[in-house]
Amino acid sequence: MSIHAYAGKPIPHHALPNIPRLLTAYYTYKPDPREAGHRVSFGTSGHRGSSLKHSFNEAHIAAITAAICEYRAGAGITGPLFLGMDTHALSEAAFATALEVLAAYDITVLVDAELGYTPTPVLSHAILTYNQRRKPESGLADGIIITPSHNPPQDGGFKYNPPHGGPADTVVTKAIEARANELLGQAVRRVDYAEALRSPLTQRHDYVGSYVSALNRVVDLDRVAASGVRIGVDPLGGAGVAYWARIAEQHQLKLEVVRPEVDPAFAFMTADWDGKIRMDCSSPYAMASLIALKDQFDIAFACDPDHDRHGIVTRSAGLLNPNHYLAVAIDYLFRHRTDWRADAAVGKTLVSSSMIDRVAGALGRKLLEVPVGFKWFVEGLLSGDLGFGGEESAGACFLRRDGGVWSTDKDGMILGLLSAEILATTGKDPGEHYAVLTEIHGAPVYERMDAPASREQKAKLAALSAEQVQAESLAGEKIEAILTNAPGNGAAIGGLKVATRNGWFAARPSGTEDVYKIYAESFLGWDHLRQLQAEAQALTDAVIMQ
Fold it and tell me: What amino acid positions are annotated as catalytic residues?
């Protein structure tokens, strides 16, 4: 990929988004349901789009919220709905629209006590806490979180979390998507925003206090405090801005928030690899400012705008690759969480590093390999069957110290704090721990690349069967597995994964571009990885271009 001249540098003023124009488009642009790009579309992380592209406008949010209200009624969900938003410019506009509709449907809604921002994991934790403590006669709670995650400032996102607290599964999202598209452009029930705020059904909730006070149940913050570890945190202008000072004060941590400002243009960011503003805490370009401060702290980390992802910066290794930190976190947690069930498994998505497989094997733990999407970890985290679930894109969650469920959505905040616990407990930072793992298990190299594909070819890839792949070897090694279904749960992966003893690749169609994505990893070095990538593309092309 070509690295842009702006990558890792401050954004020039002329390249910043026009926030007034973005908000004007939210209210004035009218989507045309006949246009595929204008319709509601739920991916693995809810509905996303931009008001400037007719894909995230007032009509979309009104229709989706009305569809969620109807779904709740049909599913018998009668408890309160937790509503939260991140710091993207379109999030607050969508928050107002959603509340207007929810109030019209007479739904009890719990919003932040100060009408502030709410991280995704905080909303999940709130849903679970309510449902665990509710009286038998009270209905189950669910939630809506308004965020496009780490996407650029022009984007908006809208996610529904059912009573299990995690991302809704495909059955639920498809039903909501279909009904929302029927309602798109129609007048839906809603009340004035001021009336919705005054409604007795709109109630204030102390998201910050309830989450912060419970953190010691999942991360050993007493040990962190006692160690005196100096922590630097960059919220990247996200929803956790109001949380970190409270965490430091309540748990007596030596924690400094290096950049506390909120700016809907995210003008303080350094550009990502392609010159765009993207609050990706796993990108060395977007994280350049915090990386430059690494020697001022014993450990530092950042979270994306909704705080469901993490980026760990160590003195020893700088910004850790997300796969590297997942392996370290798994190794540490399963050795130190003695109250977890002895049969609690390790969960990973099939495009995450095979280092995790080797670590899980050394720990004597079962590995649950599932398709892309955190929804596949929800039931395991709820039941305690999974101690940890993680994705290669820097999203993960794990159980409380006593083995109970903490959150069923990704939680970048606890993954960041865990890095401080690891340092406080062992005297080594996660970068040093990963170096030890490579001495034991080998040092893999991993990369993702894109290959061109038409819509028809992407459809073929998504529907591929293992029998269509005739190859017997890959990059000089015998093929040991050809997968179109995840080995952990049998679910279709929407693509292909081929594995050898020392390498693998996975090919999945992009949902937004005319490309498919090739994820590849080798334990034999970069030359072998390049050979693996070339053969992976040739093998995949041969199948989808027939």
Answer: 149
